[in-house]
Amino acid sequence: MSLEEGKSGERYYSAPKIGNPAPLGLSGFALTTFVLSIHNAGASTVKVPEVVVGLALFYGGLAQLLAGMWEFRTGNTFGATAFSSYGGFWLSFAAIFIPAFGIKDAYKAAAEENPLALTHAGKFVNEDNPNNGFTTSGGIFGIITALIAWYNALAGLLTPETSYFTLPTFDLSRKNN
Predict the structure, then answer these.
(1) In a 3-state reduction of DSSP, which class is residue 165?
(2) Quick one: pLDDT at residue 113?
(3) pLDDT number for residue 174
(4) Which runs of consecutive H residues, i.e. helices, occur in the chain?
(5) Which domain holds residue 60?
(6) Does residue 165 fall inside a structural domain?
(7) Would residue 87 count as lying in a domain?
(8) Is the pLDDT of residue 93 over 70?
(9) In the chain, which end has fewer C-beta atoms inside a 10 angstrom radius, N or C?
């Protein structure tokens, strides 16, 4: 809180100004999505999806969740919901690959008991038939999505108050006639 003086001379404490949390949330989403997507697109240098676990826990998960909470503070319900939801998603995605949670082992055991289970249809489509293109095209789409998120994060950082130049963005807000 800071002590301020009003127009008529009265003194009052004002709430501290909060910065724009959207660039943090967008950056956490972008990097985590990018790393998993280059694996899914078939990059030969990223052979296992577990490479994303650290990012999914701390940057895509925790940092995005925090950005979502700060969006609530700014009054942006959409941003708060989007960032908090993606943060929760990335935290739960990381949990799949952490042995202590036992999630991956539980799915392996279920597949051995009932190999035609509907919950394993995605595994069949993506892993048992690697030439189908679903995973690769999803990875390419994820890379494009990450690049768009990084652009928007940079546009949020380069404001007229903080930079000598800004990036063009499109106003998607609802117009009242």
Answers:
(1) coil
(2) 64
(3) 78
(4) 22-40, 53-57, 64-74, 77-97, 103-113, 121-126, 134-157
(5) 20-98+134-157
(6) no
(7) yes
(8) yes
(9) C
